[in-house]
């Protein structure tokens, strides 16, 4: 098992990805699709989705519910409105709705792990409805 060491990544790359994210935040959704960060994993591979599911159950279930059924955080099932790039951005940077706060994950998780979570959430699009 690989233990991600995000701190070891070169500063320049981190700064660049920060700029890219900032630009994306400003640019979306007006030009959605134009400057999407390219996924670094195969989003449809069952291996990728499986890893995302495991992490989701560790880190996200508390707020987003079993299989994304929702709770403190939004429901993440059958969300055809969320693109992989949008998922990557919101998971990286976090989100706030009123008093409810989702923490940013980019300093805790590697980019690959964030894409795995995006892959898992994409897989929930076609999932049969599940009750919490
Ligand atoms: C402490 C609670 C909390 C945790 C933990 C949390 N979230 Fe969230 N999440 C929220 C809140 C609050 C929002 C704000 C959006 C809303 O609920 O309307 C949100 C929003 C989102 C959205 C955007 C939904 C939309 O409608 O645009 C995604 C995607 C998401 N979270 C994924 C995740 C993933 C993946 C994890 C685990 C790595 C996670 N969240 C962990 C609380 C949380």
TrEMBL record:
SUPFAM superfamilies (UniProt xref): Cytochrome c (SSF46626)
GO MF term set: electron transfer activity; heme binding; iron ion binding
Residue intervals of the Cytochrome c domain: 47-125
InterPro entries: Cyt_c-like_dom, Cyt_c-like_dom_sf, Cyt_C_IC, Cytochrome_c_Oxidase_Subunit
Signal peptide: 1-34
Keyword Metal-binding: yes
Residue ranges the record marks as coiled coil: none
Pfam families assigned to the protein according to its UniProt record, in alphabetical order: Cytochrome_CBB3
Cofactors required: heme c
Key words, A-Z: Electron transport, Heme, Iron, Metal-binding, Respiratory chain, Signal, Transport
Protein name: Cytochrome c domain-containing protein
Source organism: Skermanella aerolata
Phylogenetic placement of the source organism: Bacteria, Pseudomonadati, Pseudomonadota, Alphaproteobacteria, Rhodospirillales
